[in-house]
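We modelled the chain as a single entity of 173 amino acids. Its sequence is:
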Amino acid sequence: MRHGKKFNHLSRTASHRAAMLSNMACSLIKHKRITTTLAKAKALKQYVEPLITKSKQDTTNSRRVVFSYLHDKYAVTELFKEISVKVADRPGGYTRIIKTGFRPSDGADMCFIELVDYDENMAKTPKKKATRTRRSKKAAAAPAEDVAADTAAPVADDTATTEETPANQDKKD
């Protein structure tokens, strides 16, 4: 019976599951975003969020506890140096899962899992939309040419003749 066994076993033995989640957590910490199946992403979220919470206290004991889960000193260093600084004021919810559709080969649900504070696309301020005017582009460009022609210095050469631009001819008519 499965009474009280509420986490997803992911069709793996306990040692294989622990090694896989450890590797995925190291990849998430190093790359800030990884692509995986939805079931693995949900299991990874439960695995990595307590580690990020533990990294907020930079003590020897917390580093040892996190290292016992990750087994990668570079990932532990990055977690304690960079990520813990960014999430210091966040009370939880350090990761985000974004569904991307189905994998073509077997139809598995695919998704991104990413660290919330490192998402460049969401963090950017929205750009203002270019407002459309009823003026044509030629009408808007003509005044700029007139200003440029008026401010240009005259040529000192007597043999050079000045040619009138089409914009100046329109003014005379």
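As a brief sanity check on the tokenised model: Helices lie at 14-31, 38-54, 60-70, 73-86, 120-123, 137-151, 166-172. The longest helix spans residues 14-31.
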